[in-house]
Automatic annotation (TrEMBL):
It comes from the Bacteria. Keywords: Cell cycle, Cell division, Cell membrane, Membrane. It is found in: Cell membrane. Residues 7-194 form the SHS2 domain. It comes from Cohnella kolymensis. Belongs to the FtsA/MreB family. Self-interacts. Interacts with FtsZ. This is Cell division protein FtsA.
């Protein structure tokens, strides 16, 4: 990788669009810029209005560009949503070399072979995660390069999405004037940011509780085993506050951020604030305790739904704990509440970089880490410093192999 390579991630969320610029210097990541903008055109994590989404993307990108003083031309785009599905597949090839030594070309061929799968016409492949290789039937091989064999097999997980959702996402980004360097499943990216190797091995649910959606990713046996998206999140809490305090969404959101507390027993009755109510020009006073009485039941419901979904996916007895991330877990006292409701080990994951130490940045930061590690050990430059020219496209070719080589270390 060239020194000072720049990688830009784009997370199109229900409440915010986030652009993160990472500078990669000798393999280490520095987050040098962040841009965010209110998200219009997204409901429950899905694009419902192209023009509004394009404008919101533009706003976030402009914000990041102004912050760092560079032009952003290419981005890695995060994808999530209930259209995402995983399926296991198997690829087999005969080793091509006369001396039967497995080379990189064989590995590329077997990975390509594992992508051959019957898919419904409305779906397409958006990613591939190798789990293990087999050489002449011998399993659990992490890296078959240099081994001698006749038959090379791979077992992998194929990530698919609906063509419509992928198309809409790409269309919005392109209409915002950006080239797409790659599409990355946000669960994989945040999993990389948030989970330790052991957590992935022993069985952990990563729950990203955002504004409009909660994305669950189950990691087991070292790799991503299941994903699911529930149409619930912080917007529900805000909406409950709206109704409970009879105020507008805008005020309810501000009150939630300033005084919100997820547990009644931790809330203060003497922390008081005034609220402008709908249909009246009179303010009414409430306490943090009143607010917690509204928030706690909703947060309990969200955790119960998460638990039920993990059960439905068949992982209830196989997991060792939960790791929470996403903006909603910033709510004070969310962790003890989650402990009680999920009855399991729980911790909160926050990116450990200056400027993005907030759980709502987990997917965006995770994407930069993911790209750095898997997609391009060398690659094209996603943003230009003034006066710097873009790296040539043929460097990208080495990216697949680099991605795959590093993939073993993480997923096996
Ligand atoms: N300090 C805080 N206290 C309470 N809630 C918070 C806090 N900070 C952020 N939130 C809530 O987190 C949510 C936003 O989280 P996030 O940015 O992860 O969502 P998103 O990515 O925009 O949406 P989604 O992932 O659902 O599409 C909002 O509902 C917001 O109110
Ligand atoms: Mg999100």
């Amino acid at each position: 990788m060239s020194n000072n390579d720049l990688i830009v991630s784009l997370d199109i969320g229900t409440s915010k669009i986030r652009v993160i610029i990472g500078e990669i210097s000798n393999g280490a990541i520095n987050i040098i810029g962040v841009g965010s903008a209110d998200s219009e055109g997204i409901r429950k994590g899905a694009i419902v209005d192209i023009d509004q989404t394009v404008q919101s993307i533009r706003n976030a990108v402009d914000h990041a560009e102004r912050m760092v003083g560079i032009g952003i031309s290419e981005v890695y785009v995060g994808i999530a949503g209930n259209h995402i599905a995983l399926q296991s597949n198997h690829g087999v090839v005969a080793v091509s070399n006369e001396d039967r030594e497995i080379g990189e070309e064989d590995i590329e061929r077997v990975l390509q072979a594992s992508k051959v799968v019957a898919l419904p016409p409305e779906r397409e492949i958006i990613g591939l995660v190798p789990k293990q290789f087999l050489v002449d039937g011998l399993a659990d091989i992490q890296d078959p390069r240099g081994m001698i064999g006749v038959r090379l097999e791979v077992e992998c997980t194929i990530i698919t999405g609906t063509k419509a959702a992928v198309h809409n996402l790409m269309r919005c980004v392109e209409k915002a004037g950006l080239r797409i360097s790659g599409i990355i499943l946000m669960s994989l990216a945040s999993g990389m940011m948030a989970l330790t190797k052991d957590e992935k091995q022993m069985g952990t649910v990563l729950a990203d509780i955002g504004a409009g959606a909660t994305t669950l990713a189950v990691f087991e046996g070292g790799s991503l085993a299941a994903v699911s998206t529930l149409p619930i999140g912080g917007d529900y809490v805000t909406s409950d506050i709206c109704y409970g305090l009879k105020t507008q969404t805008e005020y309810a959101e501000k009150i939630k951020l300033k005084y919100g507390c997820a547990r009644i027993e931790d809330a203060a009755d003497d922390l008081r604030f005034k609220v402008m109510r709908v249909g009246s020009n009179m303010e009414k006073e409430f306490s943090q305790l009143d607010l917690a009485n509204i928030i706690e039941p909703r947060m309990q419901e969200i955790f119960q739904m998460i638990r039920q979904e993990v059960k439905r996916l068949g992982y209830h007895d196989k997991i060792n704990g939960y790791v929470l991330t996403g903006g909603t877990v910033s709510l004070p006292s969310v962790l003890p509440l989650a402990h009680t409701e999920l009855e399991s080990n729980v911790r909160i994951a926050v990116p450990d970089y200056i400027g993005v130490k907030d759980p709502s940045f987990s997917s965006g930061v995770g994407m930069i880490q993911y790209v750095t590690k898997y997609v391009r050990a060398r690659g094209t430059t996603a943003a230009k410093r003034p006066g710097k020219t873009k790296a040539s496209g043929n460097e990208e070719k080495t990216g697949v192999m680099a991605w795959f080589k590093n993939m073993f270390k993480e997923f096996i």
